[in-house]
Structures are given as structure tokens and as C-alpha cells.
């Protein structure tokens, strides 16, 4: 009796496994040969014709050769905003009302993976349409933090691979070929070996990988600006003094948060000296876009190293960048992530939000 019962159980399990396997194969194989090739963004959806932004020497220029200075804001990852019910054209209208001419989209690997490429493309498409309607440009940022060649990252939200990064930029560049609203591709948000905790960063290795990504992008679109970050969480550009990225039409980025520079005596002059030594010097030869900057008081929401400051940083960093024609994109137009520019979804400015809003509106 036990033998018969055991045999029946085995047969049931076998049939069940066969059914599961057959169902799985059906899902894999069903019409795979009819899956469409990737499609490109439909530019007929755009209401404004924006000039392509190009690199000319150490400047960004429009198609007539007039210099372009980006002054704008980061918004949160579109996937986060969608989940919170804040992903809308209203957000982009508000960003424009604050005086921005550019919006940075920080796309985290975890949200790209979880949302799925096709669904995420729809979010980026919407961002382009909404930004274009407000005559603002877009920076697409692969928002990871860590040292990609060894695939060690600061947090699981940033986990990616070299293959995924190559594929991301291949797919992005193909989809948005010739879309002038998409001005900049920030290849990797913040490269860092975390003080040796993620191995030892090697500039020549990093330089070569960025050149590979740029080649992939340029194979699709040469009218977009690849943006390259240095080490120390996108702060240190000194390696380019000896070994610049060997590609034309690129720009460099810096994230010069207030506690990155550590002068023995805190004065505007000493901050200027240190900023020039580590990243500002590059503005003599290349366009620079500081795609993250900002501060919060020591007792403010989300206060953490390296963003803590009493507010003196704001006027100093703006003066430094304006004197050198450096573009900038403040972090961040979201009430959750620090340093915040708004304290709620009524768009109430924080201390730094009010400051950067005033600075942007000066140039409208």
C-alpha cells in the first residue's frame, strides 16, 4: 500500500514538473521570432525645436555658436516619482518656473532593472516631451556609485555590471538619436573605490571604459555630449592633466559638495584655490557641468557628509562657476532626498532651494 501511494506521489510530482516546464518553455518560445526590433523615439511628439548643444573648445554652444550655460536641477528618479504619484507635467512646469533650462534624470540601476527597459523608456519619453514643451534640455544620468570595473558599489540600489552599462547606453543612444532635447549623457554618476573598500581605482582603466562607452554612443549619435566623471565620488579630475579622455566632443563633470574641499582656513579665496586645483582647472580646456551641488544645515533634514554647510557655500560656488563659465545642476528637487530644494510637494523652497531658484531666475 505504501509503495503504491509513494509511486502515485512521484507520478503526480513528475506530471506537475512537466506541466511547469512546458508552461515555462511556452512563455519563452511563444512567438519569440515575432518580437519587434527596438524602436526610436517619435520626435513628432515634440512641440519645440531646440538647437543641438555642441562642444566648441572649452564651451558649450548652440547651433549659431552662441555660448550655452546650463543652470538647472535634478529631479528624483522617475520610477520613484511615479510610485509616489508625483510624475507629471506639472513637475516640469514648476522646474521651469524656478528658472531651470536643464533637468537631470538620475536613473538608478535598481529602478531600470525593476521597471523594465520598455516601461522605463516610456518614462523617459514623457520627460523629454514635458521638458521640450518648457524649452528645457535633458541630462540622462546612469546613477550608480562605486567602482564599475570590479562591480563593487556603495549600496544595492547602484548594483550594475559593465555589460549592463554598455547595453544601457547602446539602447539609450539608439532610441534618442537626433533628439536635440536630450543634450547630455552622463556615463556614470559617481566613480569611487570608497577609500580602498572597493579595491583600488585605476584611471587608465576607467578612461578606457569611458572611451568604449563614448564609441558606442557615437556609433548611433554624434550630436550628443558624453559627460565623464572623475574619482572621489565625481570630484577629482586631476588625472586628466596627464591622461585626458581621448575623444572629441565630450565634457567633464564634478560634484563639488561643500565638505569636499578642506582648507585649513575657511575663506572664499582658499576654497577657490582648492576647487581650481582638483577640478576647476579643467574649465580652461573643456566644458564642465557640475551635475550635483548643494548644501544643508548641520541640523537640517538628511544632513550628512559631504553636504553640511551654513549657507556660505552657495554664493561662493556660484561665483566660482560663473567666473569660469561652468554649467551647474543643483541637487535635488524632491522633499525626501538630501540636500533637498523643496520641503514638500507644494514646492516650498528650502534654504538652498530659495538660493538656487533666485540664481536661475536671474538668467531667464
Describe the structure.
Helix 8 (231-234) links the parallel strand 10 (225-229) and strand 11 (251-253). Mean pLDDT is 93; it is low at 1-17 and 20-27. The chain has helices spanning 2-29, 78-83, 89-97, 109-115, 117-133, 162-175, 203-220, 231-234, 268-278, 313-323, 351-361, and strands spanning 54-56, 59-61, 71-74, 102-107, 137-142, 145-147, 152-153, 182-186, 190-191, 225-229, 251-253, 288-290, 327-330. The termini are far apart. It has 364 residues and is of the alpha/beta class. Strands 3-4-5-8-10-11-12-13 form an eight-stranded parallel β-barrel, surrounded by four helices. A three-stranded mixed sheet has the order 7-6-9. The chain contains eleven helices and 13 strands. It has a single domain (46-361), classed as TIM Barrel (Alpha-Beta Barrel).
Q: Please tally the β strands and state the result.
A: 13
CA radius of gyration: 23 Å
Query: End-to-end span in angstroms?
Result: 87 Å
Widest sheet: strand ordering: 3-4-5-8-10-11-12-13
Structural class estimated from helices and strands:
alpha/beta
Domain Glycoside hydrolase family: 61-333
Keywords: Glycosidase, Hydrolase, Signal
Signal peptide: 1-21
Family: Belongs to the glycosyl hydrolase 5 (cellulase A) family.
Amino acid at each position: 500500500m505504501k509503495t503504491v501511494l509513494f509511486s502515485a506521489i512521484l507520478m503526480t510530482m513528475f506530471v506537475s514538473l512537466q506541466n511547469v516546464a512546458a508552461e515555462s518553455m511556452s512563455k519563452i518560445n511563444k512567438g519569440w521570432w515575432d518580437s519587434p526590433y527596438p524602436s526610436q523615439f517619435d520626435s513628432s511628439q515634440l512641440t519645440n525645436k531646440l538647437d543641438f548643444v555642441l562642444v566648441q573648445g572649452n564651451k558649450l554652444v548652440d547651433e549659431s555658436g552662441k555660448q550655452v550655460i546650463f543652470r538647472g536641477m535634478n529631479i528624483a528618479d522617475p520610477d520613484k516619482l511615479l510610485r509616489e504619484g508625483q510624475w507629471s507635467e506639472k513637475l516640469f512646469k514648476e522646474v521651469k518656473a524656478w528658472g531651470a533650462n536643464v533637468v537631470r534624470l538620475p536613473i538608478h540601476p535598481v529602478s531600470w532593472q525593476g521597471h523594465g527597459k520598455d516601461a522605463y523608456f516610456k518614462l523617459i519619453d514623457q520627460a523629454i516631451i514635458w521638458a521640450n514643451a518648457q524649452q528645457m534640455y535633458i541630462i540622462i544620468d546612469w546613477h550608480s556609485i562605486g567602482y564599475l570595473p570590479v562591480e563593487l558599489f556603495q549600496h544595492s540600489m547602484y548594483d550594475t555590471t559593465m555589460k549592463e552599462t554598455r547595453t544601457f547606453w547602446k539602447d539609450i543612444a539608439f532610441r534618442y538619436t537626433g533628439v536635440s532635447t536630450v543634450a547630455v549623457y552622463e556615463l556614470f554618476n559617481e566613480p569611487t573605490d570608497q577609500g580602498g573598500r572597493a579595491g583600488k581605482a585605476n584611471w587608465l582603466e576607467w578612461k578606457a571604459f569611458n572611451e568604449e562607452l563614448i564609441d558606442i554612443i557615437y556609433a548611433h549619435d554624434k550630436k550628443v555630449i558624453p559627460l565623464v566623471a572623475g574619482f572621489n565620488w565625481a570630484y577629482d579630475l586631476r588625472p586628466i592633466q596627464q591622461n585626458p579622455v581621448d575623444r572629441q566632443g565630450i565634457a567633464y563633470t564634478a560634484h563639488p559638495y561643500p565638505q569636499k574641499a578642506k582648507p585649513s582656513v575657511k575663506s572664499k579665496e582658499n576654497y577657490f584655490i582648492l576647487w581650481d586645483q582638483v577640478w576647476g582647472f579643467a574649465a580652461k580646456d573643456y566644458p564642465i557641468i557640475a551635475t550635483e551641488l548643494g548644501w544643508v544645515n548641520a541640523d537640517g533634514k538628511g544632513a550628512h557628509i559631504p553636504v553640511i554647510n551654513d549657507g556660505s557655500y552657495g554664493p561662493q560656488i556660484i561665483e566660482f562657476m560663473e567666473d569660469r563659465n561652468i554649467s551647474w545642476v543643483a541637487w535635488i528637487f524632491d522633499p525626501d532626498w538630501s540636500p533637498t530644494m523643496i520641503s514638500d510637494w507644494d514646492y516650498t523652497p528650502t534654504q538652498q532651494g530659495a538660493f538656487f531658484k533666485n540664481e536661475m531666475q536671474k538668467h531667464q
